[in-house]
User: What shape does this take?
Amino acid sequence: MSNNPLVIFTPSGKRGRFPVGTKVLDAARQLGVDLDSVCGGRGICSKCQITPMFGDFPKHGVNVRPDALSEWNAVEERYKSKRHLIDGRRLGCQATVQGDVIIDVPPESQVHKQVVRKRAEAREITLDVATRLYLVDVEQPDMHDPSGDLERLVAALREQWDLPELEADFSVLADLQKTLRKGNWQVTCAVHQGHNEERGHILQVWPGFFEGPLYGLAVDLGSTTIAAHLCDLDSGEVLASSGIMNPQIRFGEDLMSRVSYVMMNPGGHTEMSRVVREAMDALIGEVVAEAGIPRDLVMETVLVSNPVMHHLFLGLDPVELGQAPFALATANSLTLKAAEVGLTLHPQARLYYLPCIAGHVGADAAAVALSEAPYKSEDLVLIVDVGTNAEILLGNKERVLACSSPTGPAFEGAQISSGQRAAPGAIETVRIDPVTKEPRFRVIGCDLWSDEDGFAEATAQTGITGICGSGIIEVIAEMRMAGIVDAGGLIGSAAQVGTDRCIEDGRTHSYVLYDGREGDGPLITVTNGDIRAIQLAKAALYAGARLLMDKMGVDTVDRVTLAGAFGAHISPLHAMVLGMIPDVALDKVASAGNAAGTGARIALLNMGARAEIEQVVRDIEKIETAVEPRFQEHFVNASNIPNAVEPFPLLAEIAPLPDVSFNQKSEGSGGRRRRRR
Amino acid sequence: MSNNPLVIFTPSGKRGRFPVGTKVLDAARQLGVDLDSVCGGRGICSKCQITPMFGDFPKHGVNVRPDALSEWNAVEERYKSKRHLIDGRRLGCQATVQGDVIIDVPPESQVHKQVVRKRAEAREITLDVATRLYLVDVEQPDMHDPSGDLERLVAALREQWDLPELEADFSVLADLQKTLRKGNWQVTCAVHQGHNEERGHILQVWPGFFEGPLYGLAVDLGSTTIAAHLCDLDSGEVLASSGIMNPQIRFGEDLMSRVSYVMMNPGGHTEMSRVVREAMDALIGEVVAEAGIPRDLVMETVLVSNPVMHHLFLGLDPVELGQAPFALATANSLTLKAAEVGLTLHPQARLYYLPCIAGHVGADAAAVALSEAPYKSEDLVLIVDVGTNAEILLGNKERVLACSSPTGPAFEGAQISSGQRAAPGAIETVRIDPVTKEPRFRVIGCDLWSDEDGFAEATAQTGITGICGSGIIEVIAEMRMAGIVDAGGLIGSAAQVGTDRCIEDGRTHSYVLYDGREGDGPLITVTNGDIRAIQLAKAALYAGARLLMDKMGVDTVDRVTLAGAFGAHISPLHAMVLGMIPDVALDKVASAGNAAGTGARIALLNMGARAEIEQVVRDIEKIETAVEPRFQEHFVNASNIPNAVEPFPLLAEIAPLPDVSFNQKSEGSGGRRRRRR
Assistant: This one.
């Protein structure tokens, strides 16, 4: 045995000695090397491509001779000439070991390959999907030992792939006999093995070799927008993404008004359920069309959403979520057939809904947790997903806390006099000169600043229509930095500030950000009411974060992650000037983009991640802000805008805020700040 | 501890000592005594009724004082005055142990009570149903420790009933929150725990206490008739039974013509599936109406049928069953939702389809095996279920063989000149005077013999319309015993036999059984063609039995059981005169009635029986007659009618058959008989 050739696989480093003539694929299997194969070594699927490395490898103590593998054969020649097999590659199921050899398994040939992600700091996604393809040869029926075709198929999957006793969905039976005979007793099966199911299921059977790939969908079901990402389950790549408005908006702009709708119209959730399912199905139609694939090859979908959307999508009455104690019908993850909830994918496609954390903290927050993995973090991270409700996670690998804070829709541009949704024409970035108090800005859909040449022409089509959520954060923060607003949130008069952009507005003042009235455009101002709305929203957010910090027994966090589409557009500096997030070094504030969508994609591509997040959700300590007296206290104390002293010492270094004060009332803010400690 | 009172339960004999004040129900649970309770000891369900026995019981070494149990209490008084609680009974959850006591658990209070059966020799059915009711108190939601209502319900079932982690069907979620609150956090759950499922399912939740009972259906899906039996799952009793014609008859009278229909009309099975499902659903409507219960309390149904009906009901193409190697799409048992196959029961009702034994030996044969349990028999039993195909089982507790034999429809009255289905007006019993050769008979729907007074009047309404399956057996056997037919199957001429009831009929003769032509009635004769058809059918049946006996290595069997509706009407003597079944003492031939339906009912009422029959079906040795040369041999040799000598020595003692012979050809029969050895 010790004279047998040595086979070393890279990158795993696994090694062993095998008799001359052993297939590379068999050697890999015996060593547990992650080498893909759908056809099981029949020279059909070309998934088991490997790269032999020749020459002297002192590090491995091996000299690989050119004849260390068997000669190039006809099967490989066929793949070479046809497709797939690039220079230097061999098929692991054809090449046999003839001498000591080093074999590299390229990423494409690994079942559990890593999916490339753009964010450098993001967690890795290792492909390990629930639904996979298997080619099998099924024994033919024998009159003398009768058994069902299905039972022989299941036996073949067990014997040739070591799969446990599988069940077949009822509808699979309908075509099974024809398919087996059409494939001359060789068929490819799509098998779903859920992480929490005792027995896997055969979802479909194709005659002969079916190459795939199969597809999956990750869907982030928001109150306003539904976003779907179509993934190739073989490569993990996103093939198409698209979004659609949530049609439930006509029943209520925000979640609470939708819950109220059901309270007023008992049974109204059924209609809301219908329209959102239809919209999602239409969205699925868009993404599959964009990717040019048939719907019925989408075998899996993963859903995340807040708890109210969770109930409304599943057809559950959400009224309990609208009142204490905010009881969910079910908090656990769900696995069901997508067809049960009206989605037209493969008829047997499974739907996995991530677990909800609590009545206010949904599967979307669980997805954020999965994406950002605070429970794996060495340092203490605060993760904020800003929306109508802000979901807040605080923790590290020792302990994770979660709560939801009722920020209201101000951050989304609602309740703001010139507010609007993020859309072309909306002001999203603002700078105010601290000396002249003159603003300049950019609008969505145009890369130019408003004081640059060509800006008017570039924005002529969309116009300048209002201020979006991130714009309102910036303009108020800039106003504070330019001394137009004091720490109490009051806008000074033209005389106090020294600019006629501060105009009288009833008993307070407003700041003119843009006056388009000459050209039939709007007058876009920031009113003191707008500032008040943002102060309330940011106070709720900050109070939620502080509450979790109290529970954790800390005064500072190591880093802050802003999640959500809104979080992706917020400038960390401005957020901190406003006091939305606790004081932290600016380079410790990162945007995670659409972390909920990413979490859904992770759960789609990696089964282990489903078990992981279910355990994490069980372990997370849930804090209910509504019944915490300290939340109210923090909320009251946090309504001021910081003046860059305590508790924001780090902010003071980078943005020393002017110590202006525009009336009696605002002078008390110092006192309030002290109470805040 | 040893001074604690002794509690002895009968009939189990289980005993133990318990502290004074222990509830009888708790003592029973700790000892594993089979004492029912739906409410878990809350004094609500009155299922745990027991009878304390007082006085001196030397056999048990106990003297039970009148105060051995606690005093009669208010809860018991309520049940006494209201209902249920008969004299001498106590509630096990109310009465507590005060001294040594003997407690009888009456049958109604046993969960695993035995179901009364009419046949003395029949196997016992112990009630152990898959779907049961449980009352639980569910913890209320807690904001500080959020969890779903469903998860708390599942926890309550685990903690209060020791049920494993259950799943809830998706639709249960829809009403769960309202139901929990309506019941003030006390609810009754219907829980299904399949014998082959890892996790049970909550099928429905009722607010507060729901008494039940729940219901189940056992359905025998025949090619000609569908029969349904509605059972009370609490008592095991059959509440209503009904039958309906299988509407697939319009696609083909027998199974093979239905398979041919699909061969000619690809996809035609879909339509056949639809009509049979609709008919079954209509039949279910009839039986629930007869029993006066709502459809949605039927929580389970068990189906049995032959393999072709199995496929046609499930929507599977049956063409593979029409040609060698007769491959089933699936042979294993199936558990699915009844709604999936269009049955309107409880929306979550489960359907259990017994396993098929082989391509020709279906779930109905498996049900016969379950009912007659040859695999538990000490002696060797031959079980014959006669229909278009005869299913034959031979075995004992060591070994069981099965085959199917293509008898064709002659036994059902088809292919017989005056044949008809068993219906009022059909001749079913015949006697022929061996001297005068004159017949007398009875028809279905009339208890009088044709030679009794009042017969003409009694049959005036129905008329005398033809001969049914059992009638044709009898008349031919009687003709043989009266010397009208010889061992070769030829009818003698009037001169040869000595009666002018033998009339010329082409080149052969016919026997006039009834001539109603004077009163515009039919002329009912038995032709030589009829005898030939029955000879072929009985030869197939006999050859199948002989083949199994060969495989078993025996020449005789200890007893014969005739199953099926037809088997219930066959006279064993006449069957043996015809040579349908092997020679055996007449008192060793029994009819099992509708054994397939009984087997379905056993599987409905006892979960263990499902596991049992699945194992039995795996173990049964399946013999395919179509490819056994010895079957052909036996078939050829068995076409004669016995002449009461070998191989029918036992028959010779009770029915010495006349040694007549009506032509040259028939004289050879002796030679053939010899070859049969």
Notes: The radius of gyration of chain B is 30 Å. The first helix of chain B runs from residue 24 to 31. Chain B touches chain A through 46 residues (CB under 8 Å).
